[in-house]
Amino acid sequence: MKLLTTLSVVAIAQLSYSQLTTAHEHYLEEKIRNPRVLEYVKEHSLAYKLAKDSGETYIPQGKTPAAFMESIGCQSAARGIDHEFSGGGAEPYIAINPLDPDHIAVTYMNRADTDYPIYVSLDGGSNWTASTFSPLAQLDIYAPGTFVLGNGDPVLAFDNYGTLHLTYIYAHGSGFPILGGMYYVYSSDGGFNFTVPADADHVIYEGDVFAGDLLDRQWMSCDNTGGVDEGALYMSAVYFGGGFGTAGELVLKKGLTDLGFTSSTVAVPFIGAGSAQFGNVKVDDNGGVHMACMRLDGAPGDGSIVYVKSTDGGTTFSSPMIVAPAKTGLPNDAATHVVHNRDNTATSLAVDGSNVYIAWSDFTGGGLKGYFAYSSDGGLTFSAPSEFGEELFGAGFYHVMPHVAADNGRVSLSWYKTDTIT
After folding, report:
1. 380: which residues sit within 8 A by CB, 6+ positions away?
2. 215, 279 in Cβ contact below 8 A?
3. How far is Cα 127 from Cα 118, in angstroms, rounded to an integer?
4. Cβ(131)–Cβ(118) under 8 Å?
């Protein structure tokens, strides 16, 4: 391993990637898909941890991000890097205008250049038009000459006024430090063009990737109830701790007239060496804000599916309620993965009137099962979890990444099913 700090090579070699926090390692594994770039960033992150644990100030040595990226053939942010995953893209996201069900917007991670292409349909998906907005081009305007080392999590949400909101993540830099940033833009014409607010509102948060000072895994939901918080945009995201405040699963809020997110609440704080991950937020018909996530207790992959609710517009949340015990796969730990190295216990959440539905995957016992639980009293109590995959198909299958949706008394579940042999 290269010497990246004034501390000894021997001391650095004593660390393994698993000594990064689970949340930090999840971020690196998911946002930085190019193996050469991932190794470069992980070495720096480990050296940072070693310096911090030794009470020293970390001073990066070796190639700057710009020099390293140029050495592997990346010349500018306009090119980005090849993520080296199969197919043309990943992490697709779709949003439907509540005023017009034929008005659909989609975005995804582009494989070859780290952009997030955006397409809009006005006829229910028969025809699509590309948006004029390029998040990658905007990054080069915001940070000229920066180099993209990784990215992910493009998320869309429509409000009742037809405004389309977009957030996304870039890990980028030319010199030290490498910044992990989450950014916000919006479209007043349904996604064909976007407005970039002033930097103070465009940048939700930026932190040092090596230090793990990061905001990650966001999800968004709009208040379309016509109540006192009509038009508010809520976003759940996990914060690892640092300059932004307390570590935990946060819920951030942007009011109707705000140009960016103006408040944040720690809905599920980290406990000890544990963390919280995979959050999902929804607003009910009365303006109540619901959030579910997995809380890890510090043991490898072990934890619980937890649920919280706010009845005051996201200012305060109920104490986390354990819906069910759960176990997730971990980065750099092949023994905890079953289908692929990105399967995890991400929660899916739906709200319909006073009914709340949560679905998730669980890795307990070396398998991969799909579970579902519901509340019929607005989240005060939940049913025992139902293992829907085995109930429907019997043994011999893994059930991955379930998604739940609900409307007007109807509930739907979708997920990936794969046999346990091939």
Report:
1. none
2. no
3. 13
4. yes
